[in-house]
Amino acid sequence: VWEHIQKQAKIQPPETLLYQDLPLSLRVLRDMFSLDTHKILVDSTENHRRMTQFAEQYVQGALGKIELFKGERPLFETHNIEQEIARALQPRVNLNFGSYLIIESTEAMT
In the chain, is it the N or the C terminus that has fewer CB atoms within a 10 Å radius of its CB? Predict the structure, then answer.
């Protein structure tokens, strides 16, 4: 890929896109899938089709685990994912026995 980018950089005019990584759903499939993965739920027909095609060629073992979610409510709502994300982003982390940590980024760390 790098060699192809270098060749294109020499022949293409300035401000030409030389390389673009995969869409997020395919990057997640490529980078995070393992044999320990039980199921991959996808709530978009188009994403399901693209992920299935990608898995056939590049991700051994993932093909049979990609399922199209057909629930009445959105996938994130059904599994409370948005609430979990909001909770993970809270500055306060509760610990056992009533103690807690507060994690805040300071201007120096930003």
Answer: C
